[in-house]
Amino acid sequence: MELFQNLGFSANPFSTFSAEEEMFLNDIYINPLFYETLKSDLINGHSRFILGARGIGKTALLLQLKNALDKKKAFTIIVDAFDGIPLTNNQVKLTKLIIERIVTSFCIKISKDPKGLKKLNEYQKEKLSFIIKEFFITLSRSEYEKLYNKTDKIKTRNIFRNVWNYLFNRPINFLISGGIEIVAETARKAMGLPITDGIKFYKNYVPELTLEQIEREKNPEKFLSDFKILKEILNDLTEIIKLSGFETTIVFFDKIDEYTKLNSSISAVADFLDEFLKDTTILMNKSYSLVFSLWDVLKTDLTNSGVRFDKIKPIDITWQNDNLKTILDKRIEYFSKGEKSANDIVLNKSKLDDIIELSNNSPRYLFRQLSYIYDQQAEINRNSIVLTEEAIERGQLVYAKSFEYYAIYPTKRGSKEDILTNINRLLRIGKSIIKSKDFVDIFKVSSQSGNSYLKIVQEYNLVKELTETEAGAKLYEIQDPVLKYLIKSGITEIKK
After folding, report:
1. Residue 102: is its pLDDT beyond 50?
2. Which residue intervals of the chain bear CATH 1.10.10.10?
3. Which residue of 26, 43, 315, 386 shows the fewest CB atoms closer than 10 Å?
C-alpha cells in the first residue's frame, strides 16, 4: 500500500500547494474574517486592493470570490497575463487589455444563455457590436473551446425554465462558420447583432472628428487610443453588461509581480502600476469593480508615488498559527473523508506546532513543508500510520535548506542571489541575536561595512531591532523562521 493509504487518505494531501492546481479548493477553503464584507463591497461597485506576502493565499481568495460572485450573477474575469504591456506609461494599454478581456469573455458567457441580448434596445446592440468589432480578441478554436468550457453554466431554477431555455434560448454556436479562428465578425453575426461600420460611435467618442476624417482613415481604431476615451468605452461596456442581466462587472488582477519582464523588482512592479492606480476616476467608477491582488511589499513605494490607499481600501491577508491549524485540519478532513485531523497524523503536539511555526503564516509553505516530510516518511517507512518525528525532522531540514528565498523576498538591491548572499552572512554569524560588530568580526570588514550589511538585512526584514542593548550596542533578532531553523540546525551556508 502507498503511504497515503496507510495514513488513512484517499490520495496524498500534500502533493499540491498552489491554488491553481487544487481542483478541490472549494471544499477545503477557509474564508478570512473580512470575506463577506469584501464580497459585498465588490458587488456594490467598490474597487479594492488585496495585499499579502507571496504564498499567503491571494490567488485562492480571488478564485473563491470569483466563484461566489458568479453565483450572485456578477460578471467576473481574472486578468493574470500581461504580455505586451509596456513596463511604464501603460494606462492606455492596460485599459485596452481590460476592455478586450471583458468583451471577449462576455461574448462567450452570453453565448451560453443568450436571452440577455433580448434585454438590449437597438442602440445598445449597435454599441455592443461596435465594441466587439474594435476590441474582441481573435481566438483559435482551441482557445475558444477552453474559455467556453471554463465559463460556468447558468443554472435554472425549475423544470419549466429548463424546458423553456432548451426550446428558446439555446447556446450560440460561434463555430458554426467552420473557420479555424473566432473573430469579431463571427461573434457579431452569431449573436445576431447589427453589423455597423461604427462611424456614429467614432463620432460619439471623438466628437472633434469629421465624417470625412473617419471615412478616409484606413485604421480608424487609432482614434480610440486615448485613456479618456477608453475609460468611456469601459464604462459603456459594463453598463451594457448590466442591462443584459448581470448585477455588475468585476475584474480581478492577479500575478502582476510575476510578469517576467518586471524581474520581481519592487520598483519595477510599482512603476508598472503607478500611473494606472493613481487615476481615481477609473478606480472609483461604480459601474464596475477592479480588484488588485498585490505583493504587500509594494505598498510603501505605491503610497510614496501617490496611489490613494486612503480612498481605495486596502485589505491585508494575514493568517495566525491557529488559522493555519484550522486550514490543515480542513485539508486532512477532506482527504480522510472526515475521519482524521492533524493531531492524528502528527502525534507530538510540539512537533505540530513547530511545523506550523516554520510555515511563517503561509498556507502554501505549510503544505510545501509537509510534502517534504511526507516524502521522508515514505523513504523511512511507507507502512507507518503517522508522520514520525524522524521524518518530520528530516523533512524540515530538506525544506529549510532548499527554501526558495528569491520567490518571496523582493529583489530590492539587485538579482535574486543578493538575498541569498545576505542569508549566508547571517548563517555564518550563526546566532539568533546579533549586533553590527558580528559582521565586523566574522567578515573582517570595517565598522562602516558592518553597519551597511546590517542595514541590508533590516531592509529585507530578516532582522528586527530589540529594545535592549549589550554594552551600549544595539541588538537585532532574526525574524525569518526558516533562517532561525537553519541557524539552530548548525547550517552555515545554503547554495545559490
Report:
1. yes
2. 407-488
3. 26
Taking alpha carbons only, the member of 306, 302, 300 closest to residue 271 is: 302
> CB neighbours (10 Å) of residue 313?
14
CATH, range 3-13+319-401:
1.10.8
Q: What is the pLDDT of residues 278-322, one digit of tens each?
A: 999 999 999 999 999 998 888 988 999 999 898 888 888 888 899
Domain 407-488, CATH: 1.10.10.10
Tens-place pLDDT, residues 154-186: 443 444 444 434 444 567 777 655 566 788 888
The count of other CB atoms within 10 Å of the CB of residue 222 is: 9
Degrees, nearest 5: CA angle 51-57-58: 40
Which residues of the chain are in CATH 1.10.8 domains? 3-13+319-401
Strands 433-434 and 314-316, how do they pair? unpaired
Give the pLDDT band of residue 29 (cuts 50, 70, 90). Answer: confident
The per-residue pLDDT for range 324-364, each reduced to its tens digit, is 999 999 999 999 999 999 999 999 999 999 999 999 889 98
User: Which pLDDT value is given to residue 160?
Assistant: 42
Please state the separation of Cα 390 from the chain's center in Å.
36
d(CA 65, CA 70): 8
